[in-house]
What does this fold into?
Amino acid sequence: MTPSPFRHLGLKLLSVLLGVMLWMVVAGEETVVRGLRIPLELQQFPAGLELESEPPSTVDVRVRGSSGALGRLTSTDVVAVIDLRGVHAGRRLFPLMPEQVRAPFGVEIVQVTPPTVVLVFEPSATKKVPVAPTVDGRPAAGFLIGKVTVEPSTVEIIGPESAVKQATEALTEQISVAGARELVRETVKVGMADASLRLKTSRPVVVDVQIVPAPVERTVHSLPVHLKNLAANLTAQSNPLTVDVGLRGSREEMSRIRFEDVNAFIDLAGLGTGEYSLPVHADVARDAGVTRIDPPLVQVRITFGKN
It folds into this structure.
């Protein structure tokens, strides 16, 4: 049976009419040129390579089309694409032609800026680096920051070979110890200061910051100065005869120190008769440190006679 050209004649006439009207609308629109900033995509990134620095994320294009078509464009409708398939390590140039820009029907790419993108590729490398905790703030009055530990203490990083070689540590988020009187424990994120580096496995770490009592200072007054190692046929006299000794230690140890636990002395080994200005030394029997001796120098007179 031969199809009749007049079958569904009304629908055919309506289609022709709509096509003519659409053509008239499009033909009547003004053709314009517009500048756009569009995203740049890197496709088929080669395994085992890293970019030496951050690539450009956008490029500028000039597009031509009807005012209606360009007015309907969104930021994702036009995308520039660089195909990295088969790329090797080194400095590579990638021309950006209009044909490498995806655009909707009716939108023509006139120009791409920059016309060439330079990318430097390096072999990928990994390394373990220590985690350096970032502690912020001051503990409560009378307390100090003690030992700081991190678990795990190292992380594995990955990135361009040259940057990995230079990396010395990974950093944590800040751990605040402001006003603390006891152990501060926080679970924090870890990252790299160099944007070209990243963690091979992203995971948090646990940081323990010990808060310990600050050392206490105490002064022992009027300690007699002992003269040591004086030759048998000599006698010696110091001026002054006593000194004050400053000590520092834990509150518990400082409360236990007695007068006789501290010994101030001058070493006279090898000295003959005469007058000398000599330094005073001090020993402490308990776990405390000597911070000062006042006066630090004492006048000593050595003469012949029985010691």
About this structure: The chain is about 10% helix and 55% strand. The chain has three domains: 30-114, 124-213, 216-304. The first strand starts at residue 31 and ends at 43. The domain at 124-213 is CATH 2.170.120.40 (RNA Polymerase Alpha Subunit; Chain A, domain 2).
